[in-house]
Amino acid sequence: MTTDTANRPINPYDVSEDALYVHDTWREPFAHLRREMPLSWRPESPFGPYWSAVTHDLVQEVELRHDVFSSRWDMGNITIADAVNGEGFPNFIAQDPPIHTAQRRVIAPAFSPSQMVKLDAQVRERTKMLMDALPVGETFDWVERLSIPQTLGMLCILFDMPFDEWRDIKRWSDWASGVSADNLTEEYRAQFLVQMGEMLARFDRELEDRRAKPPTDDLLSRMVHSEAMGNLSPMERIANIALLIVGGNDTTRNSMTALVEAFHRYPQELERLRADPSLAANAAQEIIRWQSPVTHMRRTALEDTELGGQVIRKGEKVVMWYISANRDEKVFADAERFDVGRENARRHLGFGHGIHRCVGAKLAESQLAMVIAEIARRGLRIVPQSAPDRLASPFLHGFNALPVRIERD
Fold this sequence. Notes:
Helix content is 46%, strand content 11%. The protein has 14 helices and 12 strands.
């Protein structure tokens, strides 16, 4: 089938380039696209040609039209890359209904209101413990001392695994989410397979342990004792475990680190929180919007269709740039500003939208709100000591390290 590429709005930027996110220069390209071409076609990139949806309304539309814009791993992938380091990755968010629906139902009860009561208590206890241990007046890495142990600690609780294995889980998470043009090599793919094999071997021991015991509330027990996920193939197990560890720590830890930047740039917002601690929950929503820890998700057109006045051809990839939609001035006034009292902060798309909205969103929000509340309650100022080391990826918007010093008012 011929395509009408000559008449398409051509995106002048390859917004999949790592440099935009490493150097924190992504704002103007996306602002230009929102103004001039909300849906644009990029004919060439290291990941092949792709459409970019950059406004709030278009991203929502793609998410809601899941019957046309597919998440299926065998149709492509859920990221701009056509596979996960050369491999199909059949996890439950890389599926369409009915498979997605059945497998999501296995995981969702772990974050039910009754479970969240228990998890909130554990989050509160862990937050206070970690904050108590932070040095005052000394330079340390906020990512290493707070963001990682907070989020990975809760993940270990969800898995019912020892916390002292967090470094392995973090390493596997980093490999599983490593979307970057620099990673499109056979050497990287070979090491990726080694890491995923190690992860599978470790988690298979846990899965078999749960299989031999009565069902419990932890995620691994829920998987093995379910019809939808109890007999997954090795690659399905790898993909779903990778999804749970990436979704369970990367996004939250990167928003938790972004708090430091946000309060440093907008110190008056920390003062508002001190004056009104009830704003902490809304501030958690706002930092997710402001940071957008998942930069994008991708869908694949199952048929020729129309979107935003453009013809999308069957098989073409449509990339939903959450990082841009969350800066859409038509929805968020003064969108660049971090505003803990923003009335519509919950309209952010940082967790996706529709049937694929993050299943663990409530836990992420709880962790962020409690860290925010503790910072405000303790009268702390967290002062960056140098520029952050930002993640080289167009998929996760995050940090490798952020040196800080805590000062008390």
